[in-house]
Design a protein that fits this description.
Helix content is about 55%, strand content about 5%. By secondary structure, it is of the alpha/beta class. Helix 33 links the parallel strand 7 and strand 8. Helix 17 packs antiparallel against helix 27. About 40% of the residues are buried. It holds the Pfam family SLC12.
């Protein structure tokens, strides 16, 4: 009654209040104002159909909302609910519905666009409960429905199957820009709408690739490579490296045009094509390569600064010529660390400054290259003057010359000669008659032109290689030299080789100059048409740079003398940059241009590497890198930047450009190798999703590129290649060990699918050969009401059999209907997968929903597996406390499963007392695994202990095999034969033959059989209730225990005890008096006729004999194996007549009584072990 008054007041006061004070719901409030005259009328129905007032305080406490009154937006809807459904009760199921919870949360939010469609969905669901009510359009809530857009009207499967128009709209508006760049954040803060990239092929791909490919190697080392390797081998080095990048670019173009590639470049392509394991491994290698590239560019910039721009700024000055190398390395370390710190601060401050400087750095590169070409052409007519002083055929260091005096003496006057500075370096004094170096005495000084020009024909001398060892003097082979030459001393002013050179070393040093082909794919988010621009721009950039490199090799060989080409630091031309001597109009064009270009390349590397690491960390495939996925508030990778700076500092501390270059060559080559592998794999698999827009690719090209990458890795530095592969392999195994949970539809999984399909088709269906037999397990688990596994040790036991290297399928049955229990089945499957991961069981899960568990188990046994990969062994638990079970179907399901496995010719393993089995963390330090080989059942009893002992839990246990001999058997010969058989089986075990005599049936056996049959008959006659059945079962159990204690060894008791034992047995026998007394306490349970039938039972002779065998055998087993860690027994088959199922369970109980851990084994009828190889 109270709510009616509240609603009446709300109908007049609340709508205007919302209209003025709730701008987010002003549209609803306006309609409420228009409809407010109807509200009191609707509220009258609340008096006629009263109901409990509703607010959030009536919501159950487990809802994720706080108890508070309904928000006004939902309070306005109550009158409609009262009118339409006056008897509605807001039940927990309604209040727990996702739609209602979302509606309630949105009603407190500020999103009207999200609130209205959900409101319509809730009203529709609410009103569709009772279809007999008037249609929705005829109700007073029509004004609210008119507010909703047509597209928000709920339809079937709208969430999972959207309209085509909405799908196309999302695809059209898709953006793959990476979040977090500072300039984007600033644009958003001032309310600017982010615009999609509109860059074309030239600005978006071609020029960035040129900037990243051209680098420090072109200006600092290409002339030295040409002079050392010669023009022919230099062309070969450049051609191989360019072929590698071209083939990689073709593969990359195919991958990049096979769908939208977000920013991330090679890492994204490799990880999505080859899987998270390869993606993480190669992604980290690519990150390390990019980081070391930054260190290499910084070292190149410092080398230009200290060698060619400002040599006087060196901090460490060598005290002798021998210490020049060490001093230079220390200067590189100090200045390199300072430069790295400044660049890192610039990158940390903001990427936008780096991007603004990129165009300036690119201009420097282009101008420098153009000046080289112009200088080469001008040298054909007017070569620049850079003389090189030679002593004999040895090159003199130009720093020692004064006033270009390349001579031994100078003529001051007509008759007066004076020794030059060079004389002082080769002789003991300044006097002309002082003792001098023998080579100096027999050789003359000459000057040659360092740059004879394009038309000089010097290329014929530079065609061939001239590899040097460390400490060798640079010599010109065409000049005459004395045959009495003595080894040069480092104290003499020659130009020496600083490292030992070879073809493989030059390949490793030059290869970084062709890297950078991924710059276009990294900018895919900024491109207008990435699938068109990336292939064209990248391939054109590689063709351009390849043409520049190949032509530069020829031009350098044709214009510059060989000794100057081999002079790495330009010492023979007074410290000028060798390539700068060829440039026009001045060497400073190259020096300044190369300095800024290397600085820009270093900034680009330090900018890209942290973002690559951040992308890897955000993918969450490498747990220990998770912290590097975070950064500043605007998304800048702060922690990744710090790690990048630290790794780059390691490269700076190496301090040698020639040593750092092969390191990053390894990482880049590995990245390119896997790009080619990804393309080749996708092409060969021919997956339906492989539809690249770029069609000029072939798997042979990708395979050739992969081969060249692998060859270049080992050619340039085989030990670096091994280290890089070891690092990638460790990362791969780390990701695989921790479980890569990402599923990216990669090619490795496609390859696995194709390989599995191929193997399954080749795998023969039918029984395998005995040598190939291995336990393929189907583990049947039972879940409780909370979907928890009742016997998790079954999986532990299955994991301990993994030495068999077989298939493992873990299954369970959910009772019910599949349409209604599908969610439970998924939850059960997840529970089993979690348990399998915990127990480290490699296999598959299968969950079947069936009305009857026995039918579900039967279906699972029949249908599990695929083709020739099917299970041959079923593992199931023993029905614990089956006598006291309220549901007799539990143990009947067990017997039915035994029958099904027997019919399917499958082996069966039934661990009894499975809770007492050791876990994987409880190894047995001693003891035995006892095998009781009663009947031959295919050899399972021999094979299983062998497999168990391969596991760490059972490894230290010995193995004993017992077999039973009858009176007519020769036990001694049986023991010898069994030992020989085990020897041929290569199984180490102790052998013992146990003799069992046919003795008279004991009174205990007779009583036990009688009690078993009487109990079965009594339960059928009395039709006990569940509680009574439990009491009776407990009574029988107690009697069993007492009889067992008094009857073991009854055949050996003295006659003096016979009377007492007989009296005790009589006191525990069902007599007429005890039965009538039981009937009087349970009146109405049965009829007198039924009890008379029960009392007339006499034990069946076959049951008595079986019970006798079980009792005697159990006595022997307990006597011999009471201290065994595990006992394996033959499991007899179930009776053909279902009426004897309960007796069968009793036989098994008697057989295993008194044993701690028992494994009942029933073979499948085929041999599983052989003595042959």
């Amino acid at each position: 009654m109270e709510i009616a008054l509240v609603l009446s007041v709300q109908s007049f006061i609340l709508p205007p209040f919302l209209l003025f004070f709730s701008p987010h719901f002003s549209l609803i409030s306006s309609v409420c104002v228009l409809c407010s005259p109807l509200f009191p009328f609707l509220s009258i129905f609340s008096f006629i159909f009263p109901h409990p007032p509703f607010s959030c305080s009536s919501v159950p406490t487990d809802l994720p909302i706080s108890p508070s009154p309904l928000p006004p937006s939902l309070s306005l809807l109550l009158p409609f609910f009262h009118f339409y459904r006056p008897s509605i009760s807001f039940t927990p199921s309604l209040l727990h519905s996702p739609v209602f919870l979302s509606l309630l949360n949105l009603s407190h939010s500020n999103s009207l666009t999200a609130f209205l469609p959900l409101l319509h969905h809730f009203i529709h669901s609410f009103l569709s409960i009772t279809p007999s009510y008037p249609p929705l359009a005829s109700l007073p809530i029509l004004p609210f429905l008119l507010l909703l857009p047509p597209s928000s009207i709920p339809q079937e499967e709208m969430d999972t199957r959207p309209k085509v128009s909405s799908l196309l709209n999302r695809l059209a508006n898709y953006t793959n820009l990476t979040q977090g760049a500072k300039e984007h954040e600033e644009a958003e803060s001032i309310g600017e709408k982010r615009k999609t990239g509109k860059m074309g092929t030239f600005m978006g791909v071609y020029l960035p690739c040129l900037q990243n490919i051209f680098g420090v190697i072109l200006f600092l080392r290409l002339t030295w490579v040409v002079g050392t390797a010669g023009v022919l081998q230099g062309l070969c080095i450049v051609f191989i490296c360019c072929c590698c990048t071209m083939l990689t670019a073709i593969s990359m173009s195919a991958i990049a045009t096979n769908g939208v590639v977000p920013a991330g470049g090679s890492y994204f392509m490799i990880s999505r094509s080859l899987g998270p394991e390869f993606g993480g491994a190669v992604g980290l290698c690519f990150y390390l390569g990019t980081t070391f590239a930054g260190a290499m560019y910084i070292l190149g910039a410092i080398e230009i600064l200290l060698m060619y721009i400002a040599p006087s700024t060196a901090i460490f000055v060598p005290s002798s010529p021998d210490g020049e190398g060490a001093a230079m390395l220390n200067n590189m370390r100090v200045y390199g660390s300072i430069c790295l710190l400044l660049m890192s601060l610039l990158v940390f401050v903001g990427v936008k400054y780096v991007n603004k400087l990129a165009s300036i750095f690119l201009a420097c590169v282009i101008i420098s290259i153009l000046s080289i070409y112009i200088g080469a052409l001008i040298s054909a007519f007017s070569p620049p003057k850079f003389p090189v002083c030679m002593l004999g055929n040895r090159t003199i260091n130009g720093h020692t010359l004064r006033d270009h005096q390349c001579a031994k003496t100078v003529l001051l006057r007509v008759t007066v000669e004076k020794a030059t500075v060079l004389w002082e370096h080769f002789c003991e004094g300044k006097e002309l008659n002082s003792s001098c170096d023998d080579y100096f005495s027999h050789s003359n000084f000459t000057q040659i032109e360092g740059i004879p020009g394009l038309a000089s024909g010097i290329i014929t001398e530079n065609l061939w290689s001239s590899y040097l060892s460390k400490g060798d003097v640079l010599e010109k082979s065409s000049l005459n030299s004395t045959h009495t030459a003595h080894p040069a001393s480092f104290q003499q002013p020659y130009v020496f080789a600083d490292i030992t050179t070879s073809f493989t070393l030059l390949v490793g040093i030059f290869f970084p100059s062709v890297t950078g082909i991924m710059a276009g794919s990294n900018r895919s988010g900024d491109l207008k048409d990435a699938q068109r621009s990336i292939p064209i721009g990248t391939i054109l950039a590689i063709l351009t740079t390849s043409l520049v490199y190949l032509s530069s090799v020829i031009l350098f060989g044709a214009c510059i003398d060989g000794v100057l080409l081999r002079d790495k630091f330009g010492d023979s031309v007074k410290g000028n940059l060798v390539v700068g001597t060829l440039a026009w109009p001045s060497p400073w064009v190259i020096v300044i241009g190369s300095f800024f270009s290397t600085c820009g390349a270093g900034l680009q590397s330090l900018t890209g590497a942290p973002r690559l690491l951040q992308a890897i960390a955000k993918d969450n495939i490498i747990p220990f890198l998770r912290v590097f996925g975070h950064g500043k508030a605007n998304g800048e990778p702060t922690w990744a930047m710090l790690l990048t700076a630290l790794i780059a500092e390691l490269g700076i501390l190496i301090a040698s450009l020639d040593l750092v270059a092969p390191i990053l060559s390894m990482f880049f080559l590995m990245c390119y190798l896997f790009v080619n592998l990804a393309c080749a794999l996708q092409t060969l698999l021919r997956t339906p999703n492989w539809r690249p827009r770029f069609s000029y690719y072939h798997w042979t090209l990708s395979f050739l590129g992969m081969t060249i990458c692998l060859a270049l890795m080992f050619i340039s530095s085989w030990y670096y290649a091994i280290v890089a592969m070891v690092i990638a392999g460790m990362i791969y195994k780390y990701i695989e060990y921790h479980g890569a949970e990402k599923e990216w539809g990669d090619g490795i999984r496609g390859l696995s699918l194709s390989a599995a399909r191929y193997a399954l088709l080749r795998l023969e269906e039918g029984p395998p050969h005995t040598k190939n037999w291995r336990p393929q397990l189907l583990v049947l688990l039972k879940l409780d009401e909370d979907a928890h596994v009742k016997s998790p040790r079954l999986l532990t036991f299955a994991s301990q059999l993994k030495a068999g290297k077989g298939l493992t399928i873990v299954g369970t049955v959910i009772p019910g209907n599949f349409l209604h229990s599908y969610g439970e089945a998924l939850a059960a499957e997840q529970t089993m997968k979690h348990l399998m991961d915990k127990e480290r069981v490699k296999g598959f899960c299968q969950c079947i929903v069936a009305q009857k568990p026995r039918d579900g188990i039967s279906h699972m046994i029949q249908s599990s597996g695929l083709g020739g990969m099917k299970h041959n062994t079923v593992v199931m638990g023993w029905p614990h406390a089956w006598r006291q079970s309220e549901d007799p179907q539990s143990w009947k399901t067990f017997i039915n499963t035994v029958r099904v496995t027997t019919a399917a010719h499958l082996a069966l393993l039934v661990p009894k007392n499975i809770s007492l089995f050791p876990s994987n963390n409880e190894p047995c330090t001693e003891g035995y695994i006892d095998v009781w080989w009663i009947v031959h059942d295919g050899g399972m009893l021999m094979l299983l202990p062998f497999l168990l002992r391969q596991h760490k839990v059972w490894r230290k246990c010995g193995m004993r095999i017992f077999t039973v001999a009858q009176m007519e058997d020769n036990s001694i010969q049986m023991k010898k034969d069994l030992a020989t058989f085990l020897y041929h089986l290569r199984i180490e075990a102790e052998v013992e033959v146990v003799e069992m005599h046919d003795s008279d049936i004991s009174a205990y056996t007779y009583e036990r059989t009688l009690m078993m049959e009487q109990r079965s008959q009594m339960l059928r006659q009395m039709r006990l209730s569940k509680s009574d059945r439990e009491k009776e079962a407990q009574l029988v159990k107690d009697r069993n225990s007492m009889l067992r204690l008094t009857s073991i060894g009854s055949d050996d008791d003295d006659d003096t005890d016979g009377g007492e034992r007989t009296e005790r047995e009589k006191s525990m026998t069902w007599t007429k008096e005890k039965t009538m007394q039981y009937r009087s306490t349970h009146s109405g349970c049965s009829t007198p006729e039924g009890f008379r039938d029960m009392l007339s039972i006499r034990p069946d002779h076959s049951n008595v004999r079986r019970m006798h065998t079980a009792v005697k055998l159990n006595e022997v087993i307990v006597n011999k194996s009471h201290d065994a860690r595990l006992v394996l027994l033959n499991m007899p088959g179930p009776p053909r007549n279902p009426e004897g199922d309960e007796n069968y369970m009793e036989f098994l109980e008697v057989l295993t009584e008194g044993l701690e851990r028992v494994l009942l084994v029933r073979g499948g009828g085929s041999e599983v072990i052989t003595i042959y190889s």
